[in-house]
């Protein structure tokens, strides 16, 4: 099987679905008082009660999902040298859209 380098473009809806699926899997056994399901406006900390270790696990899950270990997550998680107070699904999708699209990835062919 040959590996071909191709330009990858991930649609915003696909990115949103993947991010939500990761969060749903992460929180499936959590005792949450959050109604309505995970949506683009859902906040990871205030709505889903993610703690710092959960954010680390989320980042690792994103890296695995997109086969990228070089994404600049510090741009997503920090502002002015400080960790951000909260993050929405949309914030994560915006970050992924800016950092994944146009990436030359390896696909099997």
What does this structure look like?
The longest helix has 16 residues, at 12-27. Residues 1-7 and 103-109 have low confidence and may be disordered. Helix 1 (12-27) packs across helix 2 (52-66) and helix 1 (12-27) packs across helix 4. The chain starts with a strand and ends with a strand. The protein is globular, with a radius of gyration of 15 Å. It is 44% helix and 13% strand. The chain has 109 residues and is α+β, with helices and mostly antiparallel strands. The protein has one domain (3-100): ACP-like (Non-ribosomal Peptide Synthetase Peptidyl Carrier Protein, Chain A), CATH 1.10.1200.10. A two-stranded antiparallel sheet has the order 1-4. A two-stranded antiparallel ribbon has the order 2-3. It has four helices and four strands; from the N terminus they run E-H-H-H-E-E-H-E. A hairpin with a 2-residue loop joins strand 2 and strand 3 (82-83).
SSE layout:
Elements: E1 3-7, H1 12-27, H2 52-66, H3 73-77, E2 78-79, E3 82-83, H4 89-100, E4 104-108
Antiparallel strand pairs: 1-4, 2-3
Helix pairs in contact: 1-2, 1-4
């Amino acid at each position: 099987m040959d590996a071909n380098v191709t330009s990858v473009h991930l649609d915003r809806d696909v990115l949103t679905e993947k991010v939500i699926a990761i969060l749903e899997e992460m929180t499936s056994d959590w005792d949450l008082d959050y109604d309505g399901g995970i949506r683009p406006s859902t906040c990871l900390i205030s709505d889903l009660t993610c703690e710092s270790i959960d954010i680390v696990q989320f980042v690792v899950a994103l890296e695995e999902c997109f086969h990228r270990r070089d994404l600049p997550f510090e741009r997503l998680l920090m502002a002015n040298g400080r960790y951000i107070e909260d993050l929405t699904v949309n914030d994560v999708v915006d970050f992924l859209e800016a950092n994944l699209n146009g990436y030359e990835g390896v696909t099997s062919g």
